[in-house]
Backbone:
């Protein structure tokens, strides 16, 4: 990647971060939620509190990633919340993962590679 291209990507990320941050700091939380759900349709599987948590973490990671010129924090935040939504989207998986375990089931062998 050229230095010019890297600078362009940094500028785009900084602009997107500023716009999302400004949007989420308005009094119109419904608009902010609508924008996030349009960008990430899987947010609909999260509870209201979880969706708010995702939005907060997304904004924080956008700011941090932008300040570091590193998209990894942003990608990690999106990926972890998307996986949470994937669990809720599958009722059987959600049931299995939300059922308390019945204690220690013994040792697990190390898988062979």
Residues:
């Amino acid at each position: 990647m050229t230095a010019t291209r890297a600078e362009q990507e940094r500028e785009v990320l900084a602009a997107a971060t500023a716009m999302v941050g400004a949007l989420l700091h308005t009094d119109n939380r419904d608009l902010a939620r609508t924008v996030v759900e349009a960008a990430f349709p899987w947010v609909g599987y999260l509870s209201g509190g979880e969706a708010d948590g995702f939005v907060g973490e997304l904004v924080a990671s956008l700011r941090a990633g932008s300040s570091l010129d590193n998209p990894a924090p942003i990608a990690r935040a999106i990926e972890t919340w998307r996986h949470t939504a994937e669990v809720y989207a599958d009722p059987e998986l959600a049931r299995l993962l939300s059922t308390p375990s019945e204690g220690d089931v013994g040792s697990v062998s190390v898988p062979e590679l």
About this structure: Helices lie at 3-24, 29-39, 48-68, 72-89, 91-98. The chain has one domain: 8-95. The mean pLDDT is 85.
